[in-house]
Amino acid sequence: MLRKISTFSVLLLIAAGLTVSAPAQAAVKISNGVSCTKSGATTKVSTGTYKCAKNPTTSSTKLTWLSTDCLATGASYLKAKSNLPLIKVATDKTLAELDAEIVLQQKALATALADIEGYKAKIAAINVKLTPLKADVANAAKLAPTIKAYEGAIKNYETAITTKTRVTSISGTITRSISRIETSRKQAVAAYTGAQADVVDGLEMTKLICTKGF
Hints:
single chain, three-stranded antiparallel sheet, mainly alpha
């Protein structure tokens, strides 16, 4: 009788042991990519805090546990990605405006340079007329007013050339303006290129932090 009771007790203990150990074996280790059912649910484990959500790096609607670091990095990536088209539009608008301004400044530069050449040509034409007048010593008194007028015209053209040269030189206002606009253009392109790189880097970083099993 005692042997039967002892055997029965052992069976009960074994059964109890199976009952206790089964849930422990069935417990799921929480990590990135592990399926979950309640969106927004959170849980804390030794490795950190996890939330039940959709993976920001994929188009899948499947709910999985994701670390808060994964979700934070993913949110930054998604924000950068959504802003990129807006940055593109703004950049294109800025570049169009800068390009138009460069064209205007280049036209102004070309006009100023053409004016300089025109003034030089007029000075040369006046000198053609002025040289023989100055050589006519016999009629110097009579020709003096004409000579003075020609010399005055030459002086005016020379002043105009100086003024135009001042704005078309390497350090001139028109040239500096074109240089500043071109610098602004490069900066706008660089800013958009940087925004593109941020999206690419953000995706790679998110994928790394959201790696399944982490």
